[in-house]
């Protein structure tokens, strides 16, 4: 297994290059327990996980995801099988849901849950008390982005807010750009510390159902990057909401696939949507 120094070296190589790239990690499987819980807003709940099996967890960059594994419909907890540096998920496939690694340090792992009625992971998180146990797989890797861009554009809905917050924390103090986040109203906002050159904008959708309006699109389209600058774009939201924005990024902004990551985190009416990039 490659040690942390080897991963740091690979990440340093990407950081020195002109474009971002994904760096793979060994995909672990761990049973963790809830250490504590905290409501961040009316729509975000943070669970902090820990335990002996968290030792050796790999986390280096903002765009990292893990899978929380739940019992199947028949009540049986099926787990993936370790296969070298990967996992074999088998058939029937274990039931899981994907979440951002919000923070990993000092032997603790934070995961922020977007709370919504009927969501498997959301309902579990709402009921989870300190001591509750769950298996976590991953992360399988992370997208490393060089610091040489003139400006950055981050945009997403409430499901992308944890990742956007981590991105903003990771930027150099001199970074410039925009962060646009769609929420229902002010009760869903959280503090978003960012470099002085990053303008944070909140887009309110009001009573419109998540993933069904154009509040995010309208807010993003107000961004006016200066001509001739290199821009990195990161967006995540409901898959359908992102379709017109994909065209806008590539057409109007002229940003190519090596300089952006646009991910459909979820899709209305589809459980455990396999993220679209």
Automatic annotation (TrEMBL):
InterPro entries: FAD-bd_FR_type, FNR_nucleotide-bd, Riboflavin_synthase-like_b-brl, SIP_FAD-bd, SIP_fam, SIP_rossman_dom. SUPFAM superfamilies: Riboflavin synthase domain-like. Residues 27-146 form the FAD-binding FR-type domain. It comes from the Bacteria. This is Siderophore-interacting protein. The lineage of its organism: Bacteria, Bacillati, Actinomycetota, Actinomycetes, Mycobacteriales.
């Amino acid at each position: 297994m490659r040690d942390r120094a080897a991963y740091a070296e690979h990440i340093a190589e990407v950081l020195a290059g002109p474009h971002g790239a994904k760096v793979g990690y060994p995909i672990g499987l761990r049973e963790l327990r809830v250490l504590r819980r905290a409501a961040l807003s009316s729509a975000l709940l943070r669970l902090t996980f820990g335990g002996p099996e968290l030792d050796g967890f790999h986390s280096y960059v903002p765009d990292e995801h893990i899978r929380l594994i739940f019992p199947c419909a028949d009540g049986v907890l099926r787990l993936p099988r370790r296969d070298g540096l990967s996992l074999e998920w088998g058939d029937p496939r274990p039931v899981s849901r994907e979440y951002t690694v919000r923070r990993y340090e000092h032997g603790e792992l934070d995961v922020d849950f977007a709370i919504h009625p009927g969501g498997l992971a959301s309902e579990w998180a709402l009921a989870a008390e300190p001591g509750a146990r769950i298996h976590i797989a991953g992360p399988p890797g992370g997208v490393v982005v060089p610091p040489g861009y003139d400006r950055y554009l981050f945009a997403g809905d409430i499901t992308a807010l944890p990742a956007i917050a981590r991105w903003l924390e990771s930027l150099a103090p001199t970074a410039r750009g925009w962060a646009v986040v769609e929420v229902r109203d002010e009760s869903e906002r959280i503090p978003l510390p960012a470099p002085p050159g990053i303008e944070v904008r909140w887009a309110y959708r009001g009573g419109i159902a998540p993933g069904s309006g154009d509040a995010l699109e309208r807010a993003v389209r107000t961004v006016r990057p200066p001509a001739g600058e290199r821009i990195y774009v990161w967006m995540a939201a409901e898959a359908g909401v992102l379709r017109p924005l994909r065209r806008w990024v590539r057409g109007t902004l002229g940003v190519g696939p090596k300089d952006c990551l646009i991910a459909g985190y979820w899709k209305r009416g589809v459980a455990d949507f396999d993220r679209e990039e």
